[in-house]
Design brief:
Elements lengths: L1 H17 L49 H10 L10 E2 L3 E2 L9 H7 L3 H6 L1 E25 L2 E26 L5 E8 L5 E10 L3 E9 L4 H4 L12 H10 L4 E10 L8 E8 L1 E3 L10 E3 L8 E11 L2 E12 L7 E15 L3 E14 L13 E15 L6 E13 L9 E12 L3 E12 L14 E12 L1
Length: about 475
């Protein structure tokens, strides 16, 4: 209503100004309502022969410039010379001006979000996992028999409490938005950098350089927090920890994708620094170091292609990797694989499914196998399925039973040497925010499983795990 009254008064004043003056011979009486309006910022407008009409000052709510019609109305509503900008405001306090003479307040109003546009944005993420694990396994222990330490087979029960992961990551997005960077640390125990890379990406191309996961199978590339299981499992330990497959390594990738086609084809190629076996390999953790510049070739190469078929992500990959069967020696091995990933959300829940298979070369062979000068050919397969009730939106309550099954044949020419893995469990919590997991595991290795993967005989193990996790 204030703006409407001002417009009516201004219109009336223009109509009055267009009428010829009447000579009544009597000087006009001073009217307080006809006083000259105050200038912007509290200053005083210079006197004018024609008194200015009363008006109500309205500050613009947007820094956008007014249109031509608004300019004309403003000019008609306030005739006469413009008031000079005042140097003081309020009780004589001077407003700071930049080097161009623009006031700080006006600059802030004219460019909201200036700091974000200038420096980009940062996002802090992380997760913490706390685990309790009851484990029963057959293993080799040293027993004092006749005053001599002798390795014997025993069934060992253990209850372990641990914090397997406490990760903090910082995600940076530049003002241009196509440039991003990620730094992720795991501070559970000794601080260890998991990811650290810079990335340039637009609608068709992507380039990433730094340390991150090798783009092999879809299950390996998925974050462990996004997987329903509490950990990737025994097959992952064998492939990544013992056969130098995949994992996180320094490297660079180049990718292309085409969203204009219904099947969304994507192609990624990359090179990653290889590693060699250290002089003191430990029984549980294979101790490796990155190859230095003196060794050539030092990089594993990988290529992965993906398409969308009937709502599923179907991919295939090839990795020519550097492996180290003995300390300080490296050779080239290869792995080829295919996988399928399907994720669908219903009105009251969701369904997720992974399936993959791989085939490649390895240096692990049974001791009694006749040497033929060729590498062993291994075959592996893995599947995982999960159906959740609820959890259709972030932080919504959900219950999700799941299962995983995996098998590894370390040498296609040897019989009775398979390694089996089975997992069942259930998650309860708030989707993508917090969950409590109860999981049962069983591992079984056949009698001809080759030595070298594990200390002692192949694993014969059962475990029950209770894990709580929160992501932020």
């Amino acid at each position: 209503m204030v703006v409407t009254l001002s417009g009516i008064l201004a219109t009336g004043w223009r109509a009055h100004a267009q009428e010829p003056p009447r000579d009544t011979g009597v000087a006009p009486t001073a009217d307080p309502s006809r006083a000259a309006p105050e200038a912007v910022d509290g200053g005083t407008a210079p006197p004018s022969e024609t008194p200015a009409p009363p008006s109500v000052e309205t500050k613009p709510t947007s820094p956008a410039l007014p249109g031509a019609a608004e300019k004309a109305e403003a000019t008609a509503a306030a005739p006469g010379p413009a008031a000079p900008a005042a140097e003081t405001e309020g009780k004589g306090k001077k407003k700071k001006r930049d080097k161009n003479g623009k006031k700080d307040k006006d600059r802030d109003e004219a460019a909201p979000g200036l700091e974000q546009l200038r420096f980009g944005s940062f996002e802090l993420k992380g997760r913490v996992l706390a685990r309790s694990e009851f484990d029963r396994r057959d293993t080799i222990v040293l027993d004092n028999i006749g005053n001599t330490l002798t390795p014997v087979g025993r069934t060992v029960d253990s209850l372990d409490l641990s914090v397997p992961s406490a990760r903090v990551s910082l995600h940076y997005t530049a003002p241009t938005e196509w440039l991003t960077a990620v730094a992720e640390l795991d501070i559970a125990g000794r601080p260890d950098m998991k990811d650290g890379y810079v990335q340039a990406k637009n609608s068709h191309f992507i380039v990433r350089a730094g340390q991150f996961k090798v783009p092999v199978s879809a299950m390996e590339a998925t974050s462990p927090w996004a997987l329903p299981v509490v950990r990737r499992g025994l097959l992952n330990d064998v492939l990544v920890g013992r056969m130098d497959y995949g994992g996180r390594r320094p490297g660079v990738i180049f990718g292309f994708r085409d969203k204009s086609l219904d099947w969304h084809p994507r192609l990624t190629v990359g090179a990653f620094q290889g590693s060699y076996l250290a002089v003191d390999p430990t029984p549980r953790d294979r101790d490796t170091d990155l190859l230095n510049a003196m060794k050539f070739p030092s990089q594993s190469v990988v290529a992965r292609a993906e398409v969308d078929i009937l709502g599923a992500d179907v991919g295939a990959y090839y990795e020519n990797r550097i492996g180290s069967p003995v300390p300080f020696q490296t050779y080239r091995y290869w792995t080829a694989g295919a996988d399928l990933y399907y994720d669908r959300v219903f009105y009251n829940g969701g369904f997720r499914f992974w399936l993959e298979g791989m085939y490649g070369t390895s240096w692990y062979e049974h001791a009694s196998k006749v040497r033929d000068g060729k590498d062993a050919m291994f075959v592996a397969a893995r599947t995982m399925v999960a159906y959740r009730f609820g959890g259709t939106t972030d932080e919504a309550f959900y219950v999700e039973p799941y299962g995983l099954a995996a098998v590894l044949d370390p040498d296609a020419q040897v019989t009775s040497d398979h390694l089996w893995e089975g997992v069942v469990g259930v998650n309860v919590g708030y989707w993508r925010r917090a969950r409590l997991s109860l999981q049962g595991e069983i591992n079984k290795g056949q009698r001809n499983f080759p030595a070298g993967y594990f200390v002692g005989p192949p694993p014969d193990r059962q475990a029950v795990i209770l894990q709580a996790g929160v992501a932020f």
